[in-house]
Every structure is written in structure tokens, then in C-alpha cells.
Amino acid sequence: MNMNNLNGKLAVITGGSSGIGFSVAEDLAKKGARILIVARNEKKLAQAAAQLKEVSAFPVITVSADIGNLEDIQKIKVAVQAVSPCADIVVNSAGIVSGGLLADTPLTEWERLYSLNVRGLVAVLQALTPNMEAQSKKDNQPRHIVNVASVAGLIGAPGMSAYSATKGAVILLSECLRAELSVYNIGVTAVCPAYVKTPIAETVQAFGRMDNPRTHKGIAKTFARADLTPQDVAASTLKAMAKNKGLVVLGKQGVMGNLIKRFSPAMMGRLMGKMARAY
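User: That's the sequence. What structure does it adopt?
Assistant: C-alpha cells below.
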């Protein structure tokens, strides 16, 4: 996709009021895209829209919606249809994270993570891709979908089974969708960052044996030491879209960890076992 010619193209970004989603929206706005951001918190949405208006050539559209609530998905579809035949870019950035060993993580938490990280993402795509396909048949213009996954979807670390399962699902879903939509000139990219300095660090829940001051302090320190910022992820995401990459792994820890797993799975197993002994 030509990222230097986005004039008026409609970009829909879930989780667009902060973190990675906001930074991607900001970069797309600077390149001329029309921005529609989706988030649950109306106050944060308004604040984000005000900031985006400073760099956008078009009015910024906001939709207050919880993508984990299937009834809210219709709001996004209606907002898109009000301004364009279809979305030209969809960035699924909304997501939540928690930690806990398998035996300690309640099924209700598995369901909470799945409802937003997977089912909500799928619902957004099911609402928007049919019109993208139909429009692409008419104009054959390139369009793109970005699904923000995580290195946790590539590497199974102790205490991350529920979260990793959802992000692993997003990665393979993206791979399937990339093949399905290639015939419509629609690219699909799964972005897999390691730790990123975002507000999500403040909301990480931990369960069972991980729910203790030492673990919470460790989580905070890990995010504080992260070598990735939302701006870094946004810049890499736009580059990946331009090259129509299927999978992008970001962050020194993520790149190194993925390489070790691919070329020395036994070493990765020993490293993960050592981490597990801490709990």
C-alpha cells in the first residue's frame, strides 16, 4: 500500500484513544488519512480527537464502543457507512492483558480476554471486510488490515497462558485472513511487539501465585525498561503496511526470543523453565 498517498482514505482504529492505537492514528493522519477512532472511554476519546485534529486535514470521527460487546460493533459499521463506501485501513489495536498460572486463572478471566482480544477483533472484521471486498472489486484499490498481536503469541512464557492463547489466535487468524483477502488486493499484517511503554501496564491484573507485591513490582519494572514506545510501534507498522508484510516482530527482546525459539527450541524451553521456578 502506498503510504505516501493516503489523502482522504478512511482509517478505522480500535483502541485509538491511547497507546499504540493513538500513535498509529496520529501517523496515518499526518499522511492524509481520514481518521475514525474507537474506544470505550468517551472522555479519552474526546481528548484523543482534539490532539488528532491538530495534524488531520479532515474531521476526526469518534465512536464510543466496547468491541467485546457485539451490540456495539454495529455503531462502528454505521459510522463508517456514513462517510465512505468502506474502510480503507483497519487497525485492531484494542486489547487487554493479565497474568496467571493456568491453574490459578479463572475461566471468567479466560472469557474476558477472549471476548475482547479475539471475538471482538473478529466481530470488527466481520462488520467491515464485506464492504472492503465489494469496493475492491469495483476499484481494485489496495487496502490494509493491521491486527496488533504480541510476542506473547509467538513465545509461551509461564504465567501468560490465557493472554498468549488469545494473541496466538490473532496471529494465525491474520495469516488465514491474509490469504483470503489477497484476491481483493487487501493486505493483512500481524504486528507482534514485545513490552511497550503504554497505559496498559497500569491495568495488568495478576491471579493466584502471581498476585503478590514482588510480581506486580516486576511487571512495572519490565514495562518501565521497555525499549519500545507506541511511536516506535506505529512507525514500524506503517512501514510494514507499505511493504505488505504478513508478520512483524518488534523490540530487542521479541526479536531475540523469536530467533531462539525458532533455531534452538531446547534452549528456549530451558529459559522458560527457569522463569517458571520463580513462581
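The first helix runs from residue 19 to 30.
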